[in-house]
Amino acid sequence: MSAEKSIFQKIIDRELPADILYEDDLVIAIKDINPQAPIHLLIVPKRKIAKIADTSLADITLLGHMIGTARTLMQQQNMDDYRLVFNNGEKAGQTVFHIHLHVLAGRSFSWPLG
Ligand code: 5GP
Question: Does residue 91 line the site of ligand 1, with CB under 6 A?
């Protein structure tokens, strides 16, 4: 783990402001600062892992909890249709190297991706 705090660690530590929708011992859920859909949340683990590629079997519970948190938040907002995205690596669009699950909803999404 690098010594420098990620943007998300600063939000978790309340050193940067954010719209926090949910928090527990393992994760925080915030609104994306640059939303790509009417609803665009980020589910972020409190423990920094830079990339999905850096996770291991030991992280399965955490990863499942991130997806479960997304499901619960969408249920609470009566959203049946949503997209969950992990970007892994720069070419895949990852810009913040502290894993996060994008939760996008409120509009139609095309497939395949560009
Ligand atoms: P990535 O491109 O790494 O998959 O996603 C990073 C996401 O973090 C982007 O959607 C970006 O808008 C969001 N983001 C970057 N900086 C901040 C910030 O300071 N606050 C919040 N709430 N979101 C941020």
Answer: no
Using a 6 Å cutoff on CB, does residue 1 contact ligand 1?
no
Tell whether ligand 1 has an atom less than 6 A from the beta carbon of residue 17.
Answer: no
Q: Which CATH number fits domain 7-105: 3.30.870.10, 1.10.3720.10, 3.40.50.300, 3.30.428.10?
A: 3.30.428.10
- What atom of ligand 1 comes closest to residue 96's alpha carbon? 3
Report whether 21 contacts 30 (CB < 8 A).
Answer: yes
pLDDT digits (tens, 9 = 90+) for 56-111: 999 999 999 999 999 999 999 999 999 999 999 999 999 999 999 999 999 999 99
